[in-house]
Design goal:
With 254 residues, this protein is of the alpha/beta class. The protein is built from seven helices and ten strands. The structure holds adenosine-5'-triphosphate.
Length: 254
């Protein structure tokens, strides 16, 4: 059974059809990269996977069952802009995820449970290369380090699916390369399934095992919102030739 099953899925906001007729299965362990023109519904798609938005119609299953109605620990997300808490130290930012999950009412742990959470958070910080910055505050971190922290925050909850919304879009090229190595390493070591939106076709091609292109194929100039985006390419990256990338580059305004 696929981890995610999507069949004939539509998503509209009022009269604005954003996505139409999406059909795809995502298998556990895949690294799907998603590209497409601005406004074609990529973030909306991630939000549906996260449980923050719902399809208007169609089949949408996680592990063969209807998607849980709220974001849960099985799914974690990292956005382009850092989503960390400025008033908490790096370590506390990562611990918070564990604390909120284990102590839903107080959001705090004590004694042994707190020590254990601290240990797990430190292990995660080591994995993302931030152990030396555990006692710093987010404002003292560079952009790349803040994204490492966001990734640690998501991964400490041990999600099955990691959703990444242009996580490296705001970073300098050199730092991006480090982040690429980090995310590939974490993906492999944690048996993650990743769905990542990017505006960089080559980044999508480099990181993913599967490249999905979202684009509108139907247009009505008088009613620009009447039709939504579909999946126009769904290609296993290992089998993608440079000529296919050039074709996508020329036909889709990413
Ligand atoms: N909560 C909402 N209410 C109404 N319309 C929305 C909402 N969220 C998104 N939209 C609309 O859905 C469409 C798709 O938006 P979305 O952010 O998913 O696109 P995107 O492909 O991620 O764009 P970008 O690449 O610029 O980030 C847009 O027309 C947007 O205005």
């Amino acid at each position: 059974m696929s981890l995610v099953t999507i069949k004939n899925l539509w998503k509209s906001y009022g009269n604005n059809v954003v996505l139409e007729k999406l059909t795809l299965n995502i298998e556990a362990g895949e690294f799907c990269t998603l590209v497409g023109p601005s406004g074609c519904g990529k973030t909306t798609f991630l939000k549906m996977l996260l449980g923050q938005e719902y399809p208007t119609k169609g089949t949408f299953l996680l592990d063969g069952k209807p998607f849980p109605e709220e974001p849960g620990v099985e799914r974690g997300i990292v956005f382009q802009r850092y989503s960390v808490f400025e008033h908490l130290s790096v370590l506390k930012n990562v611990m918070l995820g564990i604390e909120l999950e284990q102590s839903k009412f107080f959001g705090r742990l004590f004694g042994k449970a707190k020590k254990q959470a601290e240990k797990e958070a430190m292990t995660m910080l080591e994995a993302v290369g931030l152990a030396d910055s555990a006692n710093k505050y987010p404002s003292e971190l560079s952009g790349g380090m803040q994204q490492r922290l966001s990734i640690a925050q998501s991964l400490v909850k041990k999600p099955k699916i990691l959703l990444l919304d242009e996580p490296f879009g705001a970073l300098d090229p050199g730092i991006r390369a480090d982040m690429h190595a980090l995310i590939l390493d974490l993906w492999k070591k944690n048996n993650l399934t990743v769905v990542m939106v990017t505006h960089d076709l080559h980044e999508g091609f480099y990181l993913g095992t599967r490249l999905l292109v979202f684009d509108k194929v139907r247009h009505d100039p008088l009613q620009p919102n009447a039709y939504g985006a579909r999946i126009t390419y769904d290609i296993p990256v290992g089998e993608t030739r440079e000529s296919v990338l050039e074709e996508i580059d020329q036909t889709v305004k990413i």
